[in-house]
Amino acid sequence: GQDMVSILQLVQNLMHGEEEEETSQSYRIQNLGEQGHMALLGHSLAAYISVLDRERLRKLTTRILSDTTLWLCRLFRYENGSAYYHEDDREGLLKICRLVIHTRYEDYTLEGFNVLYTKQPVIYISSAARTGLGQALCNQLGLPLSCVCRVPCNTMFGSQHQMDVALLDRLIKDDVEFGKLPLLLVANAGTPGAGHTDKLGRLKELCEQYKMWLHVEGVNLATLALGYVSSSVLAATKCDSMTLTLGSWLGLPAVPAVTLYRHEDPSLSLAAGLTSSQPVEKLRALPLWLSLQYLGHDGIVERIKHASQLSQRLLENLKNLDFIKTSVEDELSSPVVVFKFFQEYSNRDQTSHAAQASTIQHPIMSNERHIYDTFNQWLGEQLAQLVPASGVDVVELEDEGTCVRFSPLMTSAVLGTEIQDIDYLVDCLKMKIPVLTSTLQLREEFEQEVRRTVGLLYIEDLAWPGLGVVRYNYHSDEKNDDKQEKELEKINTELLKKLNELESDLTFSLGPEFGGQKNCVYIGMVTEDLDVSELVETIAATGREIEENSRLLENMTEVVRKGIQEAQLQLQKANEERLLEEGLLRQIPVVGSVLNWFSPFQASSKGRTFNLTAGSLESTESMYVSKAQGTGSTPPPTPTSSLAKQRLPGQKAFKRSLRSSDGFSETSSISHCDDLDKLDQRPPNLSPGQEQGPLEMEGAEEQKEVVQAKTDTEDIHSDKSPPDCTKVEDQGSQR
């Protein structure tokens, strides 16, 4: 065995681990506060209390359980209710299903599944409920999946996230006609996605009509503790059972969820597992018992009220923003705010899109929705990264698509969200909206420019949040696909490297890690001052430059290889000629040495030199005569590209110039006059087609002096003017 110090040290190492994990863990523990430590203390106290004698333990657990249940029923306006405390938030609904089965099937305890076989039970769940709920219930209850009926939401009237009551009525009637037994209905007071509340009043009437059990769950149940409660949520107090997740609402760690229910037969509750005769099981309520006393009624109401105020603050600010569409159930008291980026069309566009919508799923409309989903996914991730204290996340809704969700009742108590965080969130959203609108508007222009440009291939990737995806299309006569694919990858990789070296605000990347296209350049979000034509021209010119350099290297390699082979053949031929000139006797070791001593043979050294510029093989005979290596002809210039237009000082690449038209014409005229002056002062040894490049005029000082001296000499002989004056005039015109 090990001592306690070493065991606790091991636990500490497992808790903290690396430095990054230690930082995040300390951040969470720092936000717990005393109420969090009080909840954690309840678990250790429960373990200590469990070792008391049986009678004292029974009295203590009964007091803790009765107090906690009474406080929760009063706090959430649920009269004459019982409570079941559980770790998994789905476990309460599971126990309720067993209770209803025991209640509706009197012989279930004796005959078991035979009773269910004769009359199959049906559990009705909304299509907006959390995923996997129906399957989890069937797995735990041992029922087939046919026992779960998913009820669609409204399609014509009311909220698109509320259960369709009329359709539910028809489904129940059909099941009754087929000999099935409607057992239980799971309704939502705050759907997991959009936070909408079902029409609980009408659903309760329908359940009473068919003798069904009504269970309600959702985040909006927290508002029952407030002074003002909307009528739709207040109807939940008349349901048969409800599940409360107080841990996330109040920011309490490791506290159990609570299911409140009403039932008159305690024996059936015991058979279903809602109550227990074991005193230790009742100690689950101890962390809540301590936390509720620490917070008090006012503290609990204040936390829930603060979360509602955060959502209202965000909703008021979103109303004043363009291109933002909100989806809330009640603008006066909605604890969940769902919004998305959406750009409205003009009247003409609305008419055309309405005509398209009348047809069956027009492909343009589906692509457009996919693009908006991608942009909203990027927006939600950016906001969550910039303002982590806000707790915003991305949610997928059936009708609205991808949206950004703010649910402070689930996150604000844990993250410590304040009003300042909401204001900062709105400021960040204001900064991102122009980027989204500009990128969305320039995507089509970028696509058209790429399709018009030779050598570039536009890749349509609707899942990429950015300007677009482009590939430099490498044309080769190679029939080997693998070699051509490697060359294409090499060119596009080098192209990406060159683009990232430019001073611009754009982001160039290889795309997402999974699911992206290969050998492409992905361009991220852009601003409205982007010059799309310059960007596409630069990509094409850089790709051509890389391709030409690659081909030049390949050609040079081939020329060198052939030159080496030719040099080997010529040297071999020269050796054979030398053997014929020397004779056979000189090749014998001893005889040859004596013969060379008496009659030396003057052999000429004939080597070979390879001219890379001309690609020809030459003799080294002239080199030995002149004692110097010949320079040969001047090599051809390396192909370069004019990557971008002339920019102003401090202006980054791919930015539209903000100069006025007068200033632009004046600058153009001045530059044109400068070009004429440079043409007049061209050195006499250069022809009109051999002008000096900018690097030669700026970098080679000695060559400038030589050219200047020649110009001065010619001016002296022609005009007979003083050389100093000519030199000054030439320098001024050149400048």
UniProtKB/TrEMBL annotation:
Q: Where is this region: Disordered?
A: 623-735
Alphabetized Pfam families for the sequence:
PDXDC1-like_cen, PDXDC1-like_cen2, Pyridoxal_deC
Where does this protein have compositionally biased stretches of type Polar residues? 660-671
Cofactors that this protein relies on: pyridoxal 5'-phosphate
One molecular function GO term is:
pyridoxal phosphate binding
Give coiled-coil spans as residue ranges. 557-584
The cross-references to SUPFAM superfamilies, in alphabetical order and at most eight, read:
PLP-dependent transferases
Record's compositionally biased regions (Basic and acidic residues): 672-681, 701-735
Where do the PDXDC1/PDXD2 second domain residues begin and end? 334-440
**Where is each PDXDC1-like third domain found?**
446-551
Q: Which UniProt keywords apply?
A: Coiled coil, Decarboxylase, Lyase, Pyridoxal phosphate
Q: Name one GO biological process term.
A: carboxylic acid metabolic process
**Family according to the record:** Belongs to the group II decarboxylase family.
The record's annotation in PANTHER family points to:
PTHR42735, PYRIDOXAL-DEPENDENT DECARBOXYLASE DOMAIN-CONTAINING PROTEIN 1-RELATED (PTHR42735:SF1)
Name of this chain's protein: Pyridoxal-dependent decarboxylase domain-containing protein 1
Species whose genome carries this gene: Zosterops hypoxanthus
